[in-house]
Amino acid sequence: MRRIRAVGRFLYGWLPRTLLWQTFLLVGLLLTLALAAWSHIFRYFEEPPRARDLAQMVVSVVNLTRTALINAEPGRRTELLIELAALEGIRIYPAEPSDEVEPLPDTRPMRLLTAEVRRQLGGDTRFAARWKTLDGFWVSFQLDPEDRDEYWVMLPPDRLEKTYAQEWVAWGSGALLASLLGAYLIVLRVGSPLRQLAKAARLVGGRQTPPRLEENGPQEIAVVARAFNQMTGDLARTDADRALILAGVSHDLRTPLARLRLGIEMSGAPEDEVGAMVADIEEMDRIIGQFLDFGRGSAQEPPQALDLVELVGSVCEPYRLRGCRIELEMPASLVTAGRALQLRRALANLIDNALRYAGEDKPLLVRVERGMGEALVEVADRGPGIPENEIERLRHPFTRLETARTNTKGAGLGLAIIERVMRAHSGRLDLLPRDGGGLRAILCLPLGEQTAGTDRTSRRQ
C-alpha cells in the first residue's frame, strides 16, 4: 500500500494543474479510448468475411495446382512446378514424414482462416508457417483422395497480409489528431475567459480596478462575466464613497480635536491636568488615524527600490529627538523593492506599540539585517510580551491582549494594519519572544534580484 500511495503521489505530481490541460487530457484520453474501441470492433466484425475471402483464394490455388499437376504430362510436371514458382510465387514440394514444420501463429484471424480451408479441403489438411527453412503459408493436399502421396503448396505471405493496414493506421491517426485539435479548441474557448476572469479577480484582490470583461461567448461564461463586471463596478463605487467618508471624518473630527487641545493648553489649568487631557486628545487623534489607515486599505503606490537602512533611520530619528532610547543595528545598506509610505507606517506602528507597552524609559532595539532570501526589520522591546497562543488572534482587527498588557489604549488595529502592509509586499510579520523578556516584532520582506548590502554592522546609541 505504501508503494501504491507513493506511485499515486508521483503520478499526481505530473498531472496538469490548469483546467485547460486537465480537460484536454481527459477529452484526449476519451477520444483515444473510443478510437481504440471502434478499431477493435471493426476488426472483430471484419475478420470473419476476410477469412472467408482468403480461404476461398487458398482453396482456389490448391485446387488449380492439383488440377494442373493431374492433367500435366509426367515428364513436364517439373517444368510446371518451376513455372508456378517463377510466375505466381507458388512452390510445391512433396511432403515427407520427417519434414520439419513450424505451426501457424495462434490468432483469431488465422484460426478462422484454417477452419474455413479445412471445411473445403478436408479435415486432414495441414498448415505450417515454415517448411524446413522456407517461410510462407503452407497448405498440404493430395492429388487424389486414394493417393497416399501428400504435397505442400506455399503461398507468399504478402497474399495473406492486409493490403490497406497502413492506410487504415494513417487515416485513424489523422482522425485522432483532428479530434484532439477540435477538443483543444473547444477547451480553449472555455479556458480563455476563465483565465481572464482569474486575472481580473487578482487585480480586485490587489485593490486595483480591472478592465471590463467581454460579455460574449457561451451563455454561462457571459453570465459570469456580466456578474463580475457588475461586482467590480459596485466595488469601485463603494471605494469612492469610502474615500469621501474618510475625508469627511478626517476633517470633521480632527479639526475639533485641534481646537480642543488649543483651548486646554490656554485654559490655565494645572500643568499635570493639562498634560493628562492633552495625552487623551493625542490618543484620540492616534485612534482616528488608525481607523483612517485601516479604512484606506493598501495604497496604490507602486513598488520601487528602497534602502531599508535609510528608511528605518528616517522613521526612528523623530523618536530619538523627543528623547526615546532607540538602539540601531544596521548594515551600511540593504536595498529591496517596496512601497515607502506603507513600510514607514508599519514600522511606526511597531515602534509606537513597543513604546506604549514597554515604556519610554526602556531602550528599544531596532535591527536591520539580511536573512535567507529576506530583508528583516526587527523592533525588540522589554515589555510584557505576548503569549504564544494569543499571537494569531492579535493579528485580526479590533483585538487586544488586556491580560498581558494592561492599562493600554487603542482600537486594536495596529497589528492588523501591519499584517495588511506585509501581505501587500508578499512578506510576513513574525512575533517572537525575546530572550530576557519582551517581544521581537520582525518585518520579513522578500529580497529581489537587485539588492545590495554589506555584512558590516554599525551600532548607534
Automatic annotation (TrEMBL):
GO terms assigned for molecular function: ATP binding; phosphorelay sensor kinase activity
Cellular component, GO annotation: plasma membrane
Cross-referenced CDD domains: HAMP, HisKA
Record's catalysed reaction(s): ATP + protein L-histidine = ADP + protein N-phospho-L-histidine
Keyword hit for Cell inner membrane: yes
UniProt key word Nucleotide-binding: yes
Compartments, record wording: Cell inner membrane
Entry EC number(s): 2.7.13.3
Membrane topology: Multi-pass membrane protein
Protein name, as recorded: histidine kinase
Source organism of this protein record: Azoarcus sp. (strain BH72)
